[in-house]
Specification:
three-stranded antiparallel beta sheet, two-stranded antiparallel ribbon
Length: 99
Amino acid sequence: LETGDYDGLKVVEPGKVARWMNGGAIVLEEVASALPDLYGDAHKTVRSQALVRLQIRDGLPPGMLAMGHADPMYYATGLATESVECLGGVVERCLSKWL
């Protein structure tokens, strides 16, 4: 697929997911300024985010689930990591079946 936005599913250039994830599988953090690339116009209200690396299928580049919240402590480091990881697994399986 070409890079772009496909009804909420964004395709980005190679290596971008790795840069956003800083080499990790899950990132939970407070953010002073969220990226418009991830959240569109809503980036102005995002103060914490959860990023989950997705491996949808062998042979496909990694994907990522990005969730943002206005509360700076909503996705704080160490809070509900297992729940976010579980949700990422569910999304991963759904996308795998869909694609």
